[in-house]
Amino acid sequence: MTTTAPDLAQLRELDEGTRRAWTAYNERLRELDGEEYERVEGESWTELQAELRRLERRRATLLASN
After folding, report:
1. Which ranges constitute the DSSP H helices of the chain?
2. Could you tell me the CA-to-CA distances from 46 to 4, 16, 22, 42, 66 in Å, in that order?
3. What is residue 2's DSSP assignment?
4. What is the pLDDT of residue 65?
5. Domain housing 43
6. Which pLDDT score is estimated for 4?
7. Tens digits of per-residue pLDDT, 9-37?
8. Total domain count for the chain?
9. Per-position b or e across 14-23, b if 16+ CB within 10 A of its CB
10. Cα 24 from chain centroid?
């Protein structure tokens, strides 16, 4: 199986999306502590996991089309 140039560009975009998702998660938690951290972390983790699953589904679809 070979990956075409457009596919590689899309895979790079998905990798960038993964990086952005983790960065957003970390930024939401920066400088929080105690109960506020606990509350925000749970919500942020749920959002992060949903975004990572979405990106992984797109990646799987892209790779399956090759």
Report:
1. 5-29, 34-64
2. 33, 19, 12, 6, 31
3. -
4. 81
5. 5-64
6. 67
7. 999 999 999 999 999 999 999 999 999 99
8. 1
9. beebbeebee
10. 9
Residue 6: per-residue pLDDT:
65
Q: Record the pTM.
A: 0.83
Do residues 18 and 52 make contact, with C-beta atoms less than 8 angstroms apart?
yes
| 53-58 long-range contacts, CB within 8 A, separation 24+ | 55/14, 55/17, 55/18, 55/21, 58/14
Contact yes or no for 53/23 (Cβ under 8 A): no
pLDDT in tens, 32-60: 999 999 999 999 999 999 999 999 999 99
How far lies 23's CA from each of 5, 13, 16, 48, in Å? 27, 15, 10, 10
